[in-house]
Structure formats: structure tokens, C-alpha cells
Design brief:
It contains 13 helices and eight strands. By secondary structure, the chain is of the alpha/beta class. The termini are far apart.
Length: 317
Amino acid sequence: MINKKLRGAEKIIPIKILPSGSSSVQQLRKPAWIRAQFPYTPAVVSLRKLLRNNKLHTVCEEANCPNLGECFSSGTATFMIMGDVCTRRCPFCDVGHGRPNPLDLNEPENLACAVFSMGLKYVVITSVDRDDLKDGGAEHFVACIRAVRAQNVGIMIEILTPDFRGRVDKAIDILRHEPPDVFNHNLETVPRLYRHVRPGADYQHSLSLLKRFKACHPDILTKSGLMLGLGEMLSEIEDVMHDMRACNVDILTLGQYLQPSRYHLPVNRYVPPEEFKNLKSIGEKLGFMYIASSPMVRSSYHADTLIQTKSALGLTQ
């Protein structure tokens, strides 16, 4: 039996979110600074064919990322392992929800082949939430990292993980066997909005994951990000940035939340570029090694540029 992947209205549990000081939330028109490249160029079509031939998924496609056209045209993608069905139904995310199929044991090898075919020097690997697995999918992450490194000498690997709910100790222990070059876990929003934006997740739990991984691997860069425009206040953003630095998070991404469909959480506010610049300045004073902060930034957007520009990270000898 093929499990059904729920999208749009079928996926979302009706949630009413009213940010502080708001009596209602109206759908806003996108401002001039929110622009995305046309996503159906020949390069995009070619890359999609390569992905389908290797039975691979990308978060770029599944989450309806506005930067898909730009990234695919330059030959970069964030691979999404363990299928395209998530066990959670976060109302900000466009990835389908449902009962996942069993893991594809050929996926690590297929992923490694795709990375080799694309000639990548830096790859980002993320996944759906797999709360149905005893280790949350940590062993599959390790298998993918190992396979990619075996076929792609010198490659740098960033993993963007779920929160491994209830399985953090097990997941961190498994990842010891094949740690990535960069460990990324997004906090997504401020604590006050967690119940509405990340149902099933816990702010302190996610912070703990970042802190404990860094404690086990002090030489590996850690990274996290926030979506803005959901009703958070500046003081709340600053508090989260302080929390990240207290957990020794090295890299921060800040971007504008965009509503995937009318069934998802509405945009409360389009944060102007000037505010993103201000937040970057605040973060730099807090000691982040690198900050990507602008409306169109996403967690994996230009990730290779951020890491490979070692002088920006203060890592040059």
C-alpha cells in the first residue's frame, strides 16, 4: 500500500496565530525587495532530471523555496533524505505530511553518485522529520555522509537535521562515527511562537541539541537560523541570538518567512532590508563568526560561499 502524502489544506491543522498587539492578520502584498528567479530554465530542468533518475528529493522543491531557480541554475541543491513525507505538520512548511515509507537503503549511494555527477565541492544534506524511526534517522545521515565522502574526495558536508525528539543522546552518539563538516539545526522562530509555528517541537530541546553537539565536537562549525515576519519582536530575536551564542553557535541565518499557500501561516510583516542589516550588526557584536541576513536568505542559501570564504569566518592561518 502506498502511503498518501498530504499537502496544502489536507496537511495543515487549522491554527489561529495572533501576534502581540494584533487583532487580526491580513494577507499582505509582497514588497519590491521580495523577488525570485524564474525556476524553469534549461539548467533547472536538467538538474531535476538528474535528481529523478537517482530517486532523490530536494528541500528546494518540496518546501517550495523561492531561491530554487537561482540555486538549481548554478548547479547547487539541498538534498532531502529519508523520503518526501514528514511525520510532522508544521504550518509554515510546505513539505508533505503523512506516514513515511521505509528507508531506501540505496539512497546513500544514489546521493553520492548525484553529488559526483554535479561536481560539487560542498553539499547540504537535510531530511524530513522521521519520528517513526528509533534513532530519528541519525544512522541514515551517517550512511549518507560516509557514501558521499567515499565517492567525492575533499568534499565538505553540511547536515541540516531535525530535532531528534526524545533521541538526542542516541543521535549524537551515532553521529560521532561520521560527523559532518558543519552541523545545522534551525530554531526557526522565537519561543513565544513555538506552539503555533513548530507544534511538536520544543525551543529548549533544540537549543540543547546545538549545545550538546558542539560540546562533543568543538572543532566543527554549528549553525542555526530564524524566519522573520511571523509576529516576533526585535527584543525576542535578540534574546534568541544571545541563546545561540551561549550554546556556541558559530553561524546565523536570518530570512523573511514567505507563506507557501493560503493554508499556511500568514505573513505578519515583511521585514525591510534595513532591519536585516541592523540584526546582522547586532549578531556580529555578539560574536557570530558569520551571519547571512537579508529577506531572501534561507538556511542553505549560498551555504558553500559562507563556509568556503574562510577569511570571513576568521579561520585563515
